[in-house]
Amino acid sequence: MGETNPQIEADRRLLKFEAYEDYLDSMVTVYDKCLLPNRLVARHIAELGYRTCGETLSREQFEKRRAAVINYLHPPYKPYSMASTGLLLGDPAQRELALRERPNRIGILATIIFLRHSNCAGSEISGYIDYADQLKRRDWNQFFKRQMLILPNAQDLGYYHWKTNQTTTNDSENYKVMATTEKGLQFQNRFDRKVITVDPCSEPGHNTTRKRVPSKMYTHFIVFDHIVRQRI
């Protein structure tokens, strides 16, 4: 379920009504039934707000707020769509990430991408990207079509702008950033607590492999593949 709020909690009461007419009927009094000519008139008076001290919802408000409660309690299943399926992938970086797309989407892998890139002006940036996390946040279809480069930014796991010396690190959905004097920058997987070491002079860690990919799209392209294991 998603995040709740006071309005959702208050509107849970609407679930006991199958239709807007049932909601209005709940406000009809015994005197209305005795004195008014028919139920339609009684409902109209209730709809005008004469039968409650609080808010009386319009039909549109009732249906919208009742639907919001249902969607909160029983969120609709939204299957993911593969960004790389059916495309001609010319660069090795594209092909490697296409192979990893599905296992990252379903949580088998938690891949970290390290890349360096220089623009036409010679300004270079580098950084680390949580692939599984960013599959949900960026348009990778444009990357696989080679219509757009995926580049690290100041909101990613790690980011460094070589000209301005801007450096940032951020925790992501799958990783917590760590730094030690011995191993340097490391990332701890939030699910199984295993640590990924990105120092090329060290082993990458348990259940993790490092692969450098030759790419014409980037100056430097490395993938760290961590097989996610359930904690015991």
Could you characterize what this model shows?
Helices cover 28% and strands 21% of the residues. It has 232 residues and is α+β, with helices and mostly antiparallel strands. A hairpin with a 4-residue loop joins strand 3 and strand 4 (166-169). The longest helix has 15 residues, at 59-73. It is elongated and about 90 Å long. The model has no long low-confidence stretch (mean pLDDT 89).
Brief overview:
The chain is an alpha+beta fold and 232 residues long. Helix content is 28%, strand content 21%. The longest helix is centred in the N-terminal third of the chain and has 15 residues.
List the helices and strands and how they pair.
Blueprint: H1 6-11, H2 20-25, H3 30-35, H4 39-47, H5 59-73, H6 92-105, E1 112-118, E2 124-130, H7 131-134, H8 140-144, E3 158-161, E4 166-169, E5 175-180, E6 184-189, E7 195-197, E8 208-212, E9 220-226
Antiparallel strand pairs: 1-2, 1-9, 2-3, 3-4, 5-6, 6-7, 8-9
How much helicity do the residues have?
A: 25-40%
What percentage of amino acids are in beta strands? 15-25%
- Reading the helices and strands in chain order gives HHHHHHEEHHEEEEEEE
- What about the largest sheet? 6 strands, antiparallel
Shape: elongated
Helix and strand composition category: alpha+beta
Provide the residue-averaged pLDDT. 89
What is the radius of gyration computed over CA atoms, rounded to a whole number of angstroms?
A: 27 Å
Terminal CA distance reads: 26 Å
Question: What is the number of helical segments per DSSP (H or I, 4+ residues)?
Answer: 8
Strand order of the largest sheet: 4-3-2-1-9-8
- Got a strand count? 9
Q: Uncertain spans, ≥5 residues at pLDDT below 50?
A: none
